[in-house]
Every structure is written in structure tokens, then in C-alpha cells.
Amino acid sequence: MNQHPIIQQALSTGRKTLTESESKTLLSAYGVPVVEEKIANSPEQAAEMAAETGFPVVLKGLGQTLTHKTEMGLVAVGLATRDAVLQAAAIMQKNAGQALEGFLIQPLVTGDRELVAGLFTDPVFGPVIMFGLGGIFTEALEDVVFRLAPCSEKDIASVPGEIKAQKLLGAFRGQAPVDQKAIIKTLAGLSRLVQDHPQVAEVDINPLKVRTDGNLVAVDALVVLKPNQGATAYPPHIPPEDVSRFFTPRSVALVGASGKLGKWGFSIATCILGGDFGGKLHLVNPKGGTILGRRVYKDVSEIPGDVDLAVMTIPAAFVAGMFPEFQAKGIKHVLVISSGYGETGPEGKAMERELVAKARECGIVILGPNTMGINNPHAHFYCTGAHIRPEPGSTAFISQSGNMGGQLMGFALEQGIGIRAFCGSGNEAMISIEDGLEAFEVDDVTKTVVLYMESVKNGRRFYESARRLGRIKPVIVLKGGRTEAGGKAAASHTGAMASNIKVFDAACHQAGVVSVEKPMDLLDLSAVFSSLPLPKGNRVAIMTLGGGWGVVTADLCNRWRLEVPPLAEDIIQKIDKILPPFWSRSNPIDLVGENNPQLFFEVADELARWDGCDAVLVLGIVGRKNSFLRLIDSTLSTDKNADPAELKAMHQVLCDTEDKFVLHLAQLMDQYQKPFIGVRLGRPEGAGTVVHIPECRYSDVFFETPERAVKALSGMCEYRAFLDSEKE
Predict the structure, then answer these.
(1) How many other β-carbons are positioned within 10 Å of the β-carbon of residue 172?
(2) CB of 144 within 8 A of CB of 152?
(3) pLDDT tier, 374 (very low <50, low <70, confident <90, very high otherwise)
(4) pLDDT one-digit tens code per residue, 37-66
(5) What is the CATH number of domain 113-225?
(6) Distance CA 584, CA 571 (A)
(7) What fold does the segment set 240-530 form as a domain?
């Protein structure tokens, strides 16, 4: 599309801002409803035009450099006479001086509600559309919603309902509901505007006034321009097949191998060897000799046969110098564990650029530097400084922090969450988190992708990659640096500035990425996504052995946007035949502390078949065997006539019953494709969150608190809503 004449004229004269009148003319061409106004060249002409418009009016000073008119006393509201207009115009002439080029005359728009719409250019994600509560409260309340542009009307459709003050969009104090179609049209127009004219850096429509009849009108607007700029240069994409080769080497050369405990060259070597790696590990150190009873090669050229991957733990100053030797040996993939690069400051950044340049010159792909390493449990390839060997599974995990990655892998091992692969992305000098997303997108074993992030280098690519991946696999992200203090810490840790967290969250929401705020939330979502069928909606049935638990859980469901529907009459009649007459007859279903385990099975069956719920929370049924052990101890210590064998047999019956119930839930999920999420009474030593059932497609998931169960289910429902919206 050709450049709009208003933009062309402004840029040709070196202006960065359009006047209010020019801004509204441009916005009107893109469907934004703007107030009718007139331009006067003198106070007298302004008074005449005000009379033609009809009193009361709004008078504003007009000029190319007058962008903050209210602060300069260049806005007069509710002028009811010609004399009032003349007097206000004279004051504006005095305040603005030579910068005043004329006057704007507008009718006074009545209505108590003020909104804001606009766009700005985020340094990481590019153009962003904004909508929210306007007027003088915009900055104070920050009740705004963002969408990355360009965006479709489908992306925008949910925006009005996401502001906290959404009740103001309905009927309000005798005024009609806001025309939400006009909101969507306005935001879609802004998206088209910046798509057609990349020179538009900012648009501020504040206030976007709501008339008493619910119609919208922009009574003030500002458009800020930027000169034509070339596209930002980003590193080239690394193909998925190149990324995958890091995780499937048959022959590995560890350059910097050491026999000294505490050295990275020792930790990496023992981690690989201790993990039963099926390929060949070659130790390299210029001193030669033996380490761990194995021959040490002085140079990679001495290694017999091909080498698929070099792992480097030597000081940063010597890394790039070895690349010609790697090239001669045919080594094309290098994992640089070594630190001392971009994370250290300007000199380190320069060294990192030289490292990348040398790698490209030698035809080498780098993962890192400053990385904790990688794991592929499916190949028994554990190549990290931390000796954590998670079980094979379907969850791929990328972390920009080595320590956080190690901790989360440790938690995953404890919780029974299987890992497809782990990647500590380090400084991402060549392979970025976006490259990782695209590699796991085409990996058939990966079912869920989990990210710990502190920064985004290429925001637009991250958004596009995550959205494409999210259409076929859940993506879960924990973002470090959410606060100002956290952002500073992230910058010093990764050598990259954290982007505006609200824009990051908006990009994730728009891409269908499920965001969490705590590390354990990340793992809880990994557990449910990797183990359970996806719910078809957000309606939840609750079955509980304790009424209090049910009440608390219902409250949590409301907080996390889950619906707890009333039981239909037919399901009540069916459960009437199972439970005693004094059962709750409502959702949550209180099982009234019954000790007949058959009831648990039968109620679960009915809820699995009930089409009025999409998921079932099961509280307090599993885990009673643990408390029964304490009862046995108390009994034996106080009752001399107690029979230990009889008590042990009773405990075994309870254990067998719980095991059968856990199996039954997995079988129900297989049959009805409806998730059951449990909350157990305590956690026995060695038990994880995920209970694998070998003969079933799905596994059971049991949390220790209702809050964890509800939050995890809410994340699943959020992802389901995204998938449904993508189909529309």
C-alpha cells in the first residue's frame, strides 16, 4: 500500500508527530470513530464555528509541536457562549505563543465512561495494540489489555472481556451498553494501520469516549512516527535436524576432560559414563594420559572414527581456536559449556561474536556458550554438570538458566514426570529458544514443551513459533524477571534485557502458551498435560470425602475460572441409589465419610458418564492408607489386646483398594476421555505426582493440595479454549 499523504508530508518535513487533526483524519480512514471537528485560524473564526457547531463546545489549541495540550492550558471544555470561546482562545494564544497554528472546535461529548485504545512499538515484539480503561486513570490503574499486531478480529474479539473494569462496558447508570463491535473494529483498524504503515510508532486514542447511547467516539488522538528503518538483523535459523543431532550423538569428544573432582570436565565425564550412554565417549586433554581408567587423547585428530558432538569445558579464551581442528575432523556440532562470554559484559559479548563468526567460518553449529548442558533420557545421554537423570517421557524442557533447569529436572524426577529431552540454552549465541521450539515441534516423541525464560531476543519469531507449536502441543512457560528487581537480575544473569512483562504475557496468551508464575506450577502442568486427556470444557465435578475440602475446592475453581455446575436431576437420581439418603445432593458431592469403597468406584463411574462435566476432581479418597499406619501405631501402643497381624491385614486391604481405585480412574479416562485429578491425604515417601499405569494409555495424577489440582486443571482448560478458538 502506498504511504498515506499525511504520513508522507509529515516525514518529508522531518516531523515525528502528527497534529491532533491529522491524527484523527488518518485514524478515520481505518475505521476509528472520531469526533466531528472544525479548524479555525483565529479566535473570531473559532467563535463563529462554535456557534455553528452548537454550544457547549470544546476548544483546543492546534500546532505541529503541541502534543501535551492539557498541561499547557490548551484545552477548554464546556464553553457555552461566543465570549467564553474568545476568552479561552486568547489565553491559548498567550500560552502557546508562536507554536499555535490554529484552533480545534468540537461538540461536547456527553458520557461518564472513558476508554483508551492505541498502539506502540515494543523493542522485542514489535507493534502492539492496546485497549483499556481511559481518561485520567489510564496510567494510575493500568487496566489495559495487549495484542501483538498485526492481529485478526478473532484475536481481538476477547479483548473487551479481559479488562478488569469490564462491567463498565455493560449498561451503566442508565446508560446503554458499550458497542463492543465498535471496539473490535477500532482495534482491527489500528492493526491494519501499522501493517500498512510501519512508520507509525505510536497511536494514543485517549479518551475513547463512550456516549450515553453506547456509541464510541475518539475525542483526542496522537500519532507518532518513526523514519524508515531497515529490518533488525537476527541470527539465521538453525534447522530442526541440526538441533536434534545434539541429542542423538553416537560418538562424543569431551574437550577439557579432567580427573579432578569439582572440575566441569570431571562432572560431565562422570555424568555421561554414569548414565550408561550407549555411544562412545572420547576424553580429550592436551596432557594425555588416563582419566577414570580411560585413554585421554591429546587432540581430537587422534580419535579414531567419526565424532558427532564435541563438548567443551575449557576456558573461553581457547574455545574458538580449536574450531579449525574440529573442522578438519569433521565435527559440526559443538556444545560449549564454557562461560565467560556475553554474560560478563561488553568484552564478553565481543568474544561471543568472534566465537560465532569463527564457528560459521568452520561450518560448526554451537549450543551455548555458558550452558549447563543437555539430556536425552531416551538415549541414556546425560550431559550436564548436575548429576540428575530423569526418566524417559514426553515432556521437552528448555531452560535459559542452568541452575533452574537442574532444580526442575530434580523435581521432575521426584514427581515421576518423564522427560523427552532437556536443553540448557545458555547465552543462545547460535541456537535460540525459538530454534528449540521448532525442533520439538517436529519431534514425534515430544507431547509437551516446557520453558524457563529470562529474556526474548526475537519476540516476533518466538510468538510465531510458539503459536504454531501450540496448535499441536501444549507449551508452558515460566518467565523469570517479571518484576523490576527480577528484570535487573535476569539482565545480569543472561546478558539480555527482559522485555515488558505485560507484552510478554500478551504474546503468550495470543499464542496459546500457558504462563505460570511458580516453578512448581510449571511441573504440575507438565504432569497433567503429559498424563491426562484434555478436558473438553471448564465444567468441573468434585467428589470428596470431606465437606470442607469440597467447599474450599469450589471456591478455588471460581477463582481460577472453572465452573462448578449444579448436578442435573438425572445424575442426582443415579447417585441416590449409591449414597446414603443424607448425601449432599449437590456439586461438590460429599461422600459423607463412607467406608464402603465400592461407593467411590460407582460415583466415579457416574461422573465419567455424565455429560454435564468436563473434568472430575477427586479429594481425599487416595492416601488414607498412610493415616491408617499411624492409627495402627497408636492402637498397638495403647491396646495390649490388639492383634498386629489383623491390623496389618486391614491395612493391606486398604492398600489393595486404593490401588484398584487408582487403576479404575485410569481405565475411566481411557474409556471416556475425561480427566480425573486427585488430591491425596499426604504423600508417602518415594511417591510422585504421576502414578504410571502400564496397561492404560493415561496415568493418574495426585496432588497434595486442592489449589495445585485446580490451578493445573485451569491451565488445561485455558489451553483447550485456545485450541477451540483456533478452529473457529
Answers:
(1) 17
(2) no
(3) very high
(4) 999 999 999 999 999 999 999 999 999 988
(5) 3.30.470.20
(6) 13
(7) Rossmann fold (3.40.50)
